[in-house]
Amino acid sequence: MASLQPVRGTHDLLPEQNRLQDHIAQVARDIGELYGYHRMSTPIFEFTEVFARTLGDTSDVVTKEMYTFEDRGGEQVTLRPEGTAGIARAYISNGMQQMSPVKVSYYGPMFRYERPQKGRQRQFHQIGAELLGVEQVAGDIEMIAYGAHILKSLGLWDNISLELNTLGDPESRAAYRDVLVDYFKGHFDKLSEDSRARLEKNPLRILDSKDDGDRELVANAPLFAEYLNEHSQEFFKSLTGGLGDIGIGYDLNPRLVRGLDYYCHTCFEFTTNTLGAQGTVMAGGRYDGLISTMGGPQTAGVGWAAGVERLALMVGEAPAAPRPVALIPMGDAAEAKCRTLAQTLREASIAVELGYAGNMKKRMKRADKANARLAVILGDDELAKGVAQLRDLDSGEQQEVALDQLAGVIGKR
């Protein structure tokens, strides 16, 4: 048993790490409420088809990274590798088009079988948000502002850049796709094996290839901007103008893409140079064709997701836990009284450290280790008088307080 370790690519979140991740998730949730986005949760596993249809059968996630298995009923199910597909499935399953526009956020674990590295695990956590049913560019602007607000509130904004691109409408995308296929066919023998497989099904994914040979070809590939129709140009112009109105700058990245056909128009990433090669902190975009791809009604959509582990690396330390009050009983009668006193204080929302045994010296040492703010010292003499000694552990000052007034006095402190 001593040799047991967590599975590769997973890790235990000890209290301090858990507090940090909870803090990030809570900041995201609180800011989401300001924008009208409310938390929802989908199952951790779905029918495999939910992800295979939405992520594309040639994507690395589907072909190499999904945790897929047959359950005891013979169904093919998959641990969720990302959050958007489950939200889209829930939108269809629950008839949520009647609630349009739908504004939701989420937080939870995701699973991908990939090489573990800094800030990237096989079980990881994401925060994310989705806006369904809004075709107007105002939705894209709001979604980017929402993400930026979170990064600002976490104190990360000074080390963040917004990269932005447009994928155009379906007409523009189709025109660009044809040009791109012709270009890469002319260099077919130089493409990586993965990119050759993508050439017919989703050639835009080649633009995102990490293969060095592919990247050399991509550097000279035609640019999407040259094939945008008037509507697509106007949409992007409205987006950049709207971001300017709210003071959010951006860097245009013409190679920023999403490979699947249901993506359109806005494509964005918040990036940093503080995490090494894994610079993307939050990524999102518009996906007006996703719901219909899954068999639902034609529904506009835009959203983003962010890895909590990466955000945690940037934030660094969890907010300090509330400093407790240490109860120090001296004697059996005081021990019994402190048990009831601890419950009273906790029900008054005061954190309490109550040791289980030991003399005063040991209990004071434990109070110091717990970073207690105050100590309540109670012995037979104090019980007889109905008081306790309240000691400030920072200044050393001590005062006598009536037991029935203790919660109020501590609350003010």
TrEMBL record:
PROSITE patterns to which the protein is assigned, alphabetical: AA_TRNA_LIGASE_II
Signal sequence, renumbered to the chain: none
Domain Aminoacyl-transfer RNA synthetases class-II family profile: start-end pairs: 1-329
Residues involved in L-histidine binding: 82-84, 112, 126, 130, 258, 262-263
Keyword Aminoacyl-tRNA synthetase: yes
UniProt entry keywords in alphabetical sequence: Aminoacyl-tRNA synthetase, ATP-binding, Cytoplasm, Ligase, Nucleotide-binding, Protein biosynthesis
UniProt-annotated location(s): Cytoplasm
SUPFAM superfamilies in UniProt: Class II aaRS ABD-related, Class II aaRS and biotin synthetases
Pfam family, one: tRNA-synt_His
Catalytic activity of the protein: tRNA(His) + L-histidine + ATP = L-histidyl-tRNA(His) + AMP + diphosphate + H(+)
InterPro entries: aa-tRNA-synth_II, aa-tRNA-synth_II/BPL/LPL, Anticodon-bd, Anticodon-bd_dom_sf, His-tRNA-ligase, HisRS-like_core, HisRS/HisZ, HisRS_anticodon
GO MF annotation, one: ATP binding
GO cellular component: cytoplasm
Protein's GO biological process: histidyl-tRNA aminoacylation
Subunit structure: Homodimer.
PANTHER family on file: HISTIDINE--TRNA LIGASE, MITOCHONDRIAL-RELATED (PTHR43707:SF1), HISTIDYL-TRNA SYNTHETASE (PTHR43707)
NCBIfam families: hisS
Protein family according to the UniProt entry: Belongs to the class-II aminoacyl-tRNA synthetase family.
The protein's name in its UniProt record: Histidine--tRNA ligase
Gene: hisS
